[in-house]
């Protein structure tokens, strides 16, 4: 069994996606990543593909991390 992400690893992943979205991404990014369960498809976009209210707002976790650093 694979070891699950720690809270710090998950926070780091979110921070890196945020940096990517600010420094590298234009309008969208579409990725396919292989896993032992089959391919995983990831879409990052500047506009929602469904109602914005249906997305999980991850900014809360990013804010928690920045508040801990202060």
Describe the structure.
By secondary structure, this protein is an alpha+beta fold. It has one domain (7-69). 40% of the residues lie in helices and 17% in strands. A two-stranded antiparallel sheet has the order 1-2.
Overall tally of structural domains: 1
Count of helices?
2
Total DSSP E strands: 2
Biggest beta sheet attributes: 2 strands, antiparallel
Quaternary arrangement of the chains shown? single chain
Tell me the Rg in angstroms.
Answer: 14 Å
- The shape is globular
Element order: H for helix, E for strand: HEEH
How much β-strand is present in the residues?
15-25%
Helix and strand content put the structural class at alpha+beta
Summed over residues and divided by their number, the pLDDT gives a mean of: 89
Question: Percent range for helical residues?
Answer: 40-55%
Question: In what order do the strands lie side by side in the largest sheet?
Answer: 1-2
Note poorly predicted spans: none
Distance between the termini: 36 Å
């Amino acid at each position: 069994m694979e070891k699950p992400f720690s809270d710090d690893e998950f926070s780091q992943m979110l921070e890196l996606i945020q940096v990517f979205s600010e420094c590298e991404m234009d309008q969208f990014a579409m990725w396919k990543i292989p896993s032992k369960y089959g391919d995983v498809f990831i879409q990052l976009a500047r506009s929602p593909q469904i109602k914005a209210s249906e997305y999980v707002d991850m900014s809360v976790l990013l804010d928690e991390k920045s508040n801990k650093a202060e």
